[in-house]
Design a protein that fits this description.
Length: about 130
């Protein structure tokens, strides 16, 4: 069983940037697609970005496209989410997740397709 630990969240002004990290331990994540999801109070957990096991394929929610970048360093067993031009509506708890099935393309954006989850990191964007 893999353990995922997110870090890098915090309070930032609108227009600012944050870089989230997701460090994995327990087993390698190098053969699994990985994703970032977020959840704000009263809302469903929503897809933010995913990356294929190889890192070649990346997919983004329309709301973050052009502002966020997902990447991975398989040698470090770590996934990142660079967030630029942050908006107040980006405020949420951000979760890192690993796909259930190995060698995934990253196209799946459904939380149910991800079996490993971190505890989340809070991102708050002030206006």
């Amino acid at each position: 069983q893999v353990q995922l630990v997110e870090s890098g969240g915090g309070l930032v002004q609108a227009g600012g940037s944050l870089r989230l990290s997701c460090a994995a331990s327990g087993r390698t994540i190098s053969i699994h697609a990985m994703g970032w999801f977020r959840q704000s109070p009263g809302r469903e957990r929503e897809f933010v970005a995913t990356i294929s096991w190889s890192g070649v394929g990346t997919y983004y929610a329309d709301s973050v496209k052009g502002r966020f970048t997902i990447s991975r360093d398989n040698a470090k067993n770590t996934v990142y989410l660079q967030m630029n031009s942050l908006k107040p509506e980006d405020t949420a708890v951000y979760y890192c997740a690993g796909a259930r099935v190995p060698y995934g393309s990253g196209r799946s954006t459904l939380p149910a397709d991800f079996g490993s989850w971190g505890q989340g990191t809070q991102v708050t964007v002030s206006s």
